[in-house]
């Protein structure tokens, strides 16, 4: 019995997702909104994702090298970096950075739209607010997060390369060859971007749901923003486990 | 101010989209007869959250008139509006707009909402769009007019509210009064026959208030609209109203012309008009068990 | 906050272009570039008495060049040796029928892979056929232990494990002493 409200709220979230998917129509206005949202949530998240990627690349290479020294396997440091990035760090960290930067802004914007009667105005003008405000943000996230993950990984690998080859002294040829040998295109590379797309869509849905249904007050907006970040982060980590278990074959 | 000065209810160029829309409507349903009231509520009861907010509401709004709905805060004025726009189905009785009951099904409700213009308290202007894009929004979504014509209509509407110069500004760059006028232009975009104003004077300085009130009256007369104004700014609204309705204690306590309102002997009405802190509506708050 | 029309579209276009370019570079520079998603390989099987550390997805090489991978490993419940299924790239359809397969270790501590040594038989192995000549994995630790403790002077014990490692492949089921 105690689970009833939780199940109902899960049901509401599911219905919300369905209505977002149903109201995504490829009209000219939709594409204009989509482009605008890609800029706002994808383009504006680029600095933090790029910086994060560079630092993660540096850390993993440094620590990985130290750990591998014990086994005399320092030539494998790029494999460690590459596999770690594509299998876990890339999609998950990018998604978490995205949730913090863009998820919170989606929740805040929708909460603000609710508080300033914009959503009500759309409804009274017989315009579907979900089609106008939520669907473009959802698709912008599904498109942007894999792209951001690509940036994250390239910066991490570049930073790792600079660290390993120019600071630590690993041989450049070994670095690239080991990397290429250990990363499988289908199993690691493609799976990483599929995961990223799923994480992006989930984060956007959670943030949009929370913001759209926020109390139409200033307090309601700030509560919504916090809840969006927390819930979206948790869901990303949960789905990461589920997807890894499903997709990781060996 | 450039406004079509045609005082009869024939078409003027500002009402072009309406012709196109009504031309379509003609096939859907017969045109309502010109003498019946624009809005009629009969023995309506409205509940929200399990509580009865309003009961035994009988209200008739004649076409082309301006009706002021007055009352203390929390008396249920916004609930009344919700019943008219279809957000709240009546618990008992009927709510009719242009001789047809307010529909419950989504498709018909959407159709009906296109013929009601609403000016909300928060303006509801979309922050990512310019003023012109905001006003164009209903036109682009609901009509198939070519872009150039949409531009012209937007210009007409903005001109009617005196804000043609602000067409490329964003809502955050506007003052409160200007934003309210843009919202008014947008509400008029499809030339709806019924306009509803929810607290239009909130947060406006005296000049801006005067501008809005003057616009409401002028547009109502020139375009042949029916207007319902929900407000507690009594003294600014009564001069332009044809009919005044006071809501308190869960029902209508007064209905008549503004002159009758001023001369009413009802203590509640007098307390409200004079703004007296104590009277039938007590100064001390009592624990609320039912809607006021 | 707002970026207007053409500048917005340019910014988004640049973002998308840059992202796709970086994805392309990543795919080429950091993966094994196995872009063919199945359908371009055929299967061969081989039986081994000892797999060592061989796992599915391990590479199959000829002379160091990867030509395929291990797709499946099952234990034969009747003969108790393992049947390994190899996915060989369709480019290499002409493997002679007397090709031998052995399990080797890449480097000293690396992963195990299957190395094929083609013979000279004009007949070729057809898809689904079994490789006749196999050589099981060498268990390095057992080998070292054997030589350390026997001092080279106990041929009886030495014969079995040693025979695994050094005799040329004979009949497929060699069920002498699975080392593990």
UniProtKB/TrEMBL annotation, chain A:
The keyword Transmembrane helix applies. InterPro entries: ABC_MlaE_roteobac, Permease_MalE. Belongs to the MlaE permease family. The keyword Signal does not apply. Keywords: Cell inner membrane, Cell membrane, Membrane, Transmembrane, Transmembrane helix, Transport. It is found in: Cell inner membrane; Membrane. It is a multi-pass membrane protein. NCBIfam families: MlaE family lipid ABC transporter permease subunit. The chain crosses the membrane at residues 46-65, 138-162, 228-248. This is ABC transporter permease.
Automatic annotation (TrEMBL), chain C:
Residues 155-180 are annotated as: Disordered. InterPro entries: ABC_MlaD (IPR030970), Mce/MlaD (IPR003399), MlaD_Phospholipid_Transporter (IPR052336). Residues 158-180 have a biased composition (Low complexity). It holds the Pfam family MlaD. Residues 41-119 form the Mce/MlaD domain. NCBIfam families: OM_asym_MlaD. This is Outer membrane lipid asymmetry maintenance protein MlaD. The lineage of its organism: Bacteria, Pseudomonadati, Pseudomonadota, Gammaproteobacteria, Lysobacterales.
